[in-house]
Specification:
Blueprint (H helix, E strand, L loop, with lengths): L9 H5 L3 E3 L7 E6 L18 H7 L2 H5 L3 E4 L18 H20 L3 E6 L4 H11 L5 E4 L24 H5 L23 E4 L17 E3 L1 H7 L1 H14 L5 E6 L21 H13 L3 E7 L12 H12 L6 E3 L3
Helix pairs in contact: 4-5, 7-8, 8-9, 9-10
């Protein structure tokens, strides 16, 4: 499997011809989202992703992003037991946290800023994407080493609690419990299938969660490594243009990085991207002017006791987000 649903030709790529111009007016606001709610407990212990925002800030994230502001959210309480009325782990708490995060993202966007949300696990996507929708944006570029597409249609909800970090894309596309698929003033879904681009899945050949049966467009990590990050970046920009997505959300699960360079995530794997490849992709999309905000998540400091991965991650994030200061003028759609 490579790029599904739409294969962009050279003519489509020509629509992405750009001329860079400086745009120093776009202030970055860092939103700290210290959540581990979407992950399973490990040996009875809470996952450590909630610590990632503070660890990355201590590693120099504020300075590297030249951020104008930091908005820290309170850490939500993790519950190891099922909550009443839901078969989703921490489902009620995730909804509450998502509403808080959405309000914060909405406020940043409304003020003309660029929100960089630092998680936390992948459940953070829901609140960030909801905030984008409230601000009038739409569309999702979902960068992840897995498709995170579990939902009641492809697993037995009675046998185990669902973990949102493995179902965030399904929930964002409206599949799953109404608790996390229906949102005030938006309804559902947060993103239509045709407005979703999934980038980086390394397990597409298994087809176990049936993403090929949707209208979601997909670019596997194998295709990225075969064609090169520059070509794939232009394909993604062409997809944004073709779908007339002017203000989409960019979600980055850091397990898209190869485990040889980033093992400190919930589900490390290979093949994957290098820091330079990920930074290049994020930079290109941010420079397209079609990304309204971005989330980085799933780094777990508990898996990085020596602290060796925080600074490379900060550099990767900063190099990618710096694209917003090189916003592109586009022709075509």
């Amino acid at each position: 499997m490579g790029m599904q649903r739409r294969e962009f030709t050279l003519m489509a790529l020509a629509a992405a011809v750009t001329t860079a111009r400086a745009d120093p007016s776009m202030p970055v606001t860092i939103v700290l989202a210290p959540s581990n709610l979407g992950l399973r407990p490990e040996g009875g212990d809470e996952p450590g992703t909630w610590r990632a925002p503070r660890v990355l800030m201590d590693a120099g994230l504020f300075e590297a992003l030249h951020a104008a502001k930091v908005v820290p959210l309170d850490r939500p309480r993790y519950d190891t037991k099922a909550q009443a009325g839901t078969r989703i782990r921490n489902g009620l708490t995730i909804r509450t946290f998502s509403l808080q995060l959405a309000e914060t993202v909405h406020d940043v966007l409304r003020s003309g800023g660029f929100p960089v949300v630092i998680g936390g696990d992948c459940s953070v996507l829901l609140g960030a994407l909801y905030g984008l929708r409230l601000a009038g944006g739409r569309g999702l570029v979902h960068v992840d080493g897995h498709i995170d597409f579990y939902h009641p249609g492809n697993y037995d909800t009675s046998s185990r609690l669902g973990s949102v970090a493995g179902m965030d894309l399904a929930l964002a596309s409206g599949r799953g419990e109404s608790l996390l698929t229906e949102w005030p003033n938006i309804g559902k879904p947060l993103a239509r299938d045709v407005d979703i681009l999934q980038v980086g899945d390394r397990e597409a050949s298994t087809g176990r969660t049936h993403i090929p049966d949707t209208q979601i467009t997909q670019i596997t990590v194998q295709r990225i490594l075969q064609e090169g990050i520059d070509t794939i970046s232009q394909r993604a920009i062409a997809w944004l243009q073709t779908n007339r997505l002017q203000r989409a959300w960019l979600h980055v699960d850091l397990d898209v990085l190869d485990r040889r360079v980033m093992p400190a995530v919930d589900s490390p794997g290979s093949p994957g991207l290098s820091y330079a490849q990920l930074a290049g992709f994020v930079h290109a999309l941010c420079a397209s002017g079609r990304i309204a905000g971005v989330h980085f998540g799933i780094y777990d400091p508990d898996r990085d006791r020596a602290g060796q991965y925080a600074k490379p991650l900060v550099r990767c994030i900063a190099d990618g987000v710096s694209g917003i200061h090189e916003v592109q003028t586009t022709s075509g759609l």
